[in-house]
Automatic annotation (TrEMBL):
This is AMP-binding protein. Residues 29-392 form the AMP-dependent synthetase/ligase domain. Pfam families: AMP-binding, AMP-binding_C. PANTHER family: LONG-CHAIN-FATTY-ACID--COA LIGASE, SURFACTIN SYNTHASE SUBUNIT 1. It comes from Candidatus Kirkpatrickella diaphorinae. Residues 443-518 form the AMP-binding enzyme C-terminal domain. InterPro entries: AMP-bd_C, AMP-bd_C_sf, AMP-binding_CS, AMP-dep_synth/lig_dom, ATP-dep_AMP-bd_enzyme.
Amino acid sequence: MLDLDLAPSTKPLTIDGITLTAPIGGMLSEWARKWGSRIALVHGDDSMTFAALDRRVDRLAGALQNSGLKEGDRILIQMPNSIGLVTTLLAALRLGVTPIMAMPAQRLHDLSALVANAQPVAYFAARELHGFQYEVLARSLQQAHPCLRLIVLDGTDVPEDYLQLSALDAPFHPVQPPALTDLALLLLSGGTTGTPKLIPRTHADYAFTFLRSAEMAGVDEITIYLAILPGAHNFILSSPGILGVLSHGGRVVLANAASCDEIMPLIARESVTHIALVPPLLRLWIEARTWESSDLSSLRLLQIGGARVDAALVKQAQEVFGTTIQQVYGMAEGLICYTRLNDAQHVILNTQGRPMSQEDDIMIVDMDGHEVAPGETGELLTRGPYTISNYYKAAAQNAASFTAEGYYRTGDLVCQDADGNITVMGRIKEQINRAGEKIAAAEVEAALTRHPDIEEAVVVAAPDPHLGERTCAFLKGPSRTLPDLAIREFLRKNGMEAYKIPDQYAWITHWPQTAVGKLDRKKLVALAQKRDG
Ligand code: AMP
Ligand code: DBH
């Protein structure tokens, strides 16, 4: 017999005990039915209830429909933390349009590569953030990529030929909702190659991610989550982040400043209970508490993730903030590991927790791909119900990033204790993790060698007390007199994002080599450290 109530595309699906009945855009309507009059979002003096959010997302989806966007199209979203970011994302999902989630710090170089690959039809940005004008970026992007038919800027004083987000308002003509297994959104990977890779996440796998994550972080209706790192980051969007908190009736406070004298009073004012930080920010916050005296007693959980953290820093954080700490080791490709809220102290201090699903299938392997002995260090491979098995339109990279059995090669060196807890020991990927921002060495090397006076460039990560890792560029070339400042300026002028510009420069006459004649990056790291001290 035909089931008339359920269109085939919305058949429920269960992943590891969590039953999903609607795609993400439809889930919002359920949340609005349950918690309609509660506050969902706060940004500055603005706030929005769940019911108002649901209505706003409908009107915005209607306006997007009116502008000619349709199911299967892609849009590029590069918005700071704001109500506009959340409504745009959810409106796209409701319409079956695929958002590409770019970080506010990305510039022409990255965005151009993404647009060329994914061919989005629209670009959404703020007018301005921290003094940067996105209109200029929008015009350059549009000039280079005619696929971008529509530019929408959020904020006052929007140029006439661009649409303004707040003006986008039209009745929504409901569409056949996407299937749970359909592509929902494209996230960006830090990656190790020249251009950022796009990570295709489905409604089901992403909803599972934020629903299970909300359980892991003890989120409920009285949770007040403060998002200060970019909402386009998987950690902040779904671990449990913005979506995980909304899915449990909690409130999300949106902010963009990371400076302690703005954020700490905001925590007090909004009675924030949950917050996620990267280790370098945590260090700053601990230092700030020696002079900053806002009442932070509302805090219940401090999540730390995105990069390696010292046990000593975690301990200090416990003492200074008096809250439960949760270590989070995750990746936009899927797998998320958490320390559990009731884990023993030594687990919380020294490990990055264990996978959030029993269906996560992990394997730790040596250089030859053989599983290491228990407790030994090797590369982490992972597959499971919410981990991708290919990047979006990246055939060449897929072969290198996934095994024949469908495991994602994380490039992370880890070990696992008898209880299953994972500790991240290092990385085999040629990537710099600078304060949680992932930088591909290859990309910076390619940009450096575009300078006429630089023949060869090798970029490595050196340990840094403030950044976790800093970017060091080793250069070969005839002149060797190029001042650091000139190189920085060259990179900036060529559209490189500020956080990717190397922190340290050194000229070299011979590349150090390993026993088998390969470039010895370890030696370069040692050199970078020596020059520093
Ligand atoms: P991405 O693939 O760009 O989402 O970046 C994910 C990568 O960030 C992981 O593969 C790790 O290298 C790193 N990472 C994330 N969380 C942690 C953590 N808690 N400790 C150490 N490294 C981390
Ligand atoms: O670094 C990451 O990509 C990350 C860290 C913590 C992540 O994607 C996540 C949690 O979901």
